[in-house]
Amino acid sequence: MSSEEAWDLIKRAVKERDIDDVKEAIQIYVKSAPETTYRELESAFRAQDIPLWLIAIEKECLSVTLTNMDLQGHLHKKYTVTYRFQWNPPRPRERRLWPKDVDENLERLKDAGEVVDGGLPKCSNCNEVGHISKSCTQEKMESGTIREVKCYNCEQVGHRVRDCKLLTTCVFCSRLTRIAGPIPREDRFACNNCGFVLIPHHMCIEIQRLTI
């Protein structure tokens, strides 16, 4: 497939607001133009007014066994590329991670990539990377040791994401809702109306009222 055809696939996926199709189309495009960078893609999207933003953020809770890889396969990039259908951060807690403007975002994209497995094992005994517990030279941890449980939605200790009771705002109707179960990832579950929201499309009260 030519790069022009692949670019049309990207625009079609953006129009349909399908993140998975967008990512697949970008990979197809990169195969036809292997030197393309995230920064060049973002610049092209802005120049052509394509409503897709590649936002580079520095994730604070990225597992030590994971890393960021750019489109050319280079690992250990500082920032994580996220795909968005709007510029503004969807969650209040993401604002401090957000680039202040387009120029800063483009600068970050020079050292950004998507999350991949770093290929190194993590020891369940000492929590260090590079070996497994069977080969660990440190004193064995007692099986009864209690490890801290932390929710990465509200950043509180004592429960997991699936049990989080945090009220979340729907970007479409601005109502608060409590989601049962884990909050959908923005890059894998997007509302068909606004592209990506904090609640599934079918749970949006405003949408339900408009469709009655």
Automatic annotation (TrEMBL):
It comes from Trichocladium antarcticum. SMART domains: ZnF_C2HC. PROSITE patterns: ZF_CCHC. InterPro entries: Znf_CCHC (IPR001878), Znf_CCHC_NABP (IPR051714), Znf_CCHC_sf (IPR036875). PANTHER family: ZINC FINGER CCHC DOMAIN CONTAINING PROTEIN. GO terms for molecular function: nucleic acid binding; zinc ion binding. This is CCHC-type domain-containing protein. Residues 122-138, 150-165 form the CCHC-type domain. Keywords: Metal-binding, Zinc, Zinc-finger.
